[in-house]
Each structure stands twice: as C-alpha cells, then as structure tokens.
Design goal:
Order of helices and strands: HHHEHEEEHHEHEHH
Shape: globular
Strand content: 5-15%
Helix content: 25-40%
Distance between the termini: 55 Å
Radius of gyration: 21 Å
Length: 325
C-alpha cells in the first residue's frame, strides 16, 4: 500500500458513512504500517458447523438495511471496541446509510455523544422498501452507538459491591480516578424500547481492570475478609454485576412485551469482547487458529473469562428468553 485511501479497497469497502477518525479505524494512519496491507485486511472470513454457525447467511448490505428499516434498528452499547463495530457497520452498509455527527479532525468531540446511522434518502433501495408507520428517514436511526464502558454506572456498581460485601473497610474506594464513560440501564433501556429499535447489542469487559477498579489494584489491602485479590476480585464482581444487569434487562423486555402485546419483536445480543494485542501492528496475516499471548497488557489475557460469564451463567442466559406478552 502506498496511499492511505487504498485501505478502503483492501478492506472491501466502497466507502464509509462515518467520518469519525477514519484513518485510525482503518489502521491506515501510520505509513510505517502500510506493509500490513493488503494481506492483513484482504481475507474472507468463513464459518461452518464446527463453529456452531452452520447456515449463517452471506452478508448482504441491502438485506441488512431492509431489515433495519422494516423490522427495527440496532442500539449498540459499549466502549471503543463497540465504536469500532459501529464504524465498520457504517462502511459495510455504505452507500445506503449516512452518519451523524460529522467529525472534524482536531476539534472537540465528546465520547458520550450519540453516533447514528440513517437511511440515505438517495439510496436506490428507498423506492423498494416498506416504510413502517412512524418511520422518518430524517429522524429514525438504523443504528446508534452510545459509549457505555461498564453497562452500569459507577454508583450502581458501588451499590452492588456494598450489598455483596457490607463489611468492606470504611476507607475502601472501589474506583480510581481513571476516566470511564457509562450510562445507567434506566437511561438507555427506554431509548431501546421506545426508539424504534429491535436489537440491543452490548459488549463489555475491557475497562474492568484493576486500574479503573482501583480498590482491587496491585498493592491495595484486601477490601474485606477472604476477598479475591486483583483481577480475580474484579471478575467476581463482574459476574454479580452482569447477573443484576440481566435481571433488569429481562424485566424491561417483559414489561414492554406486555404493554405492546408483542407487536415489536425485541432481542438482546451480548457480543463477545475482543482482547487487544500488544504486537498487533506487526501481525501481517489473519490467524488460522487462536493464539494466546504469553503476556498481555491491561486485562487482555483474561478477556475469555469475562465472555465465559455470559455464556455459562443461567441467570444471564435467561435474558434471551422473550417473555409472553
């Protein structure tokens, strides 16, 4: 690759609707890494029976846009990893979608601001779509990203921790001063249930570290008797917090289904969190098999443990059972 614009073609995109840090998202912002292209980007991912995904349809942007318009959009909640998913979606669905807000490089951008994809009124699909009652091309988003690092607010997590461990030391502080962005389910569930969305996609894990959860940091005294130290303690809290979150989401889904008599089908998808890799810029080909790094920054080496909690906890799995209206 000799010019950064080539990253679009190598990635299989005709363009990207989102203007938010385009070169950074496409990993084309550093000429020193141009040697990774096209091999690191130009591959076709395939799945089969062994992956548990037999029968998965081939991605078709027109079909996805049609489904979003006619069945309901997607609300994506998560940290910068999910923001990357949103950006990718803006490229995968281009040119049938437009994105807001317009991002101006080197200007102020609040990560808490919503980012949206809307149906492009100039798309040739428009004339063939069934436009549901109440759908406004200019106002009804097909996809929205909100920066929600922990799925719960810090205050809600402090309450959960205190309820689990009422005898915690008086001077214990669960969180450090590290920055995090989050919303309460009490804020984002009404957006999901009342905003014309059909699918809530969430992902969390990367910010559940001992640096943000400073009370479990290296060298900190045990917050209570027999407390698990370090990351083990954070992951234990993660499991309790996600069970509490799942209960709240399930209750909200059931209540919404009762109120509208099941008129809108809603689903919640927990997307597996993706670990970072300290040497990623030197990897020039996609791996055929998972390779576990011997050492990793942050909590990257333990991300599988967070994902596993969503897979095996029955209290969380029940969130996907849609209650009868």
């Amino acid at each position: 690759m000799t010019e950064k614009i080539q990253a679009l073609e190598f990635s299989g995109f005709a363009g990207c609707a989102s203007s938010r840090e385009v070169d950074w998202h496409l990993a084309s912002d550093n000429p020193a890494h141009y040697g990774r292209f096209p091999r690191a980007q130009s591959y076709r991912w395939s799945v089969g029976k062994a992956d548990g995904c037999e029968g998965l349809e081939v991605f078709d942007k027109e079909s996805v846009v049609r489904d979003m318009v006619e069945q309901g959009g997607w609300l994506l909640l998560g940290d910068s990893i999910t923001e990357g998913h949103f950006f990718s979606l803006s490229c995968s669905l281009y040119p049938h979608v437009i994105a807001t807000p317009t991002y101006t490089p080197n200007s102020y951008f609040d990560r808490a601001w919503p980012q949206n994809l809307y149906l492009n009124p100039d798309s040739p699909l428009v004339k063939d779509l069934f436009i549901p009652t109440g759908f406004d091309i200019a106002k009804t988003p097909l996809a929205t990203f909100r920066r929600v690092d922990l799925l719960l607010t810090q205050e809600e997590l402090e309450h959960i921790h205190e309820k689990l461990h009422p005898n915690t030391a008086a001077n214990f502080s669960l969180f450090s001063k590290e920055a995090a962005w989050s919303l309460s389910p009490k804020e984002y569930l009404p957006i999901f249930l009342e905003g014309g969305y059909s699918t809530l996609v969430v992902s969390t894990g990367g910010h559940w570290t001992t640096t943000l959860f400073g009370g479990y940091g290296v060298g900190e005294p045990a917050p209570f008797k027999d407390a698990k130290p370090g990351l083990d303690g954070v992951i234990e809290l993660f499991g309790h917090a996600m069970s509490s979150w799942a209960d709240e989401v399930q209750e909200a889904l059931a209540d919404a289904a009762r109120k509208d008599h099941g008129a809108r089908k809603r689903q919640v998808l927990v997307r597996a969190y993706l670990p970072g890799h300290d040497n990623c810029h030197n990897i020039k080909l996609p791996w055929a098999e998972i390779q576990v790094p011997k050492g990793a920054s942050y909590n990257w080496g333990s991300i599988w443990r967070y994902n596993e909690i969503f897979e095996v906890d029955p209290m969380i799995l029940c969130t996907f059972e849609l209650a009868d209206p």
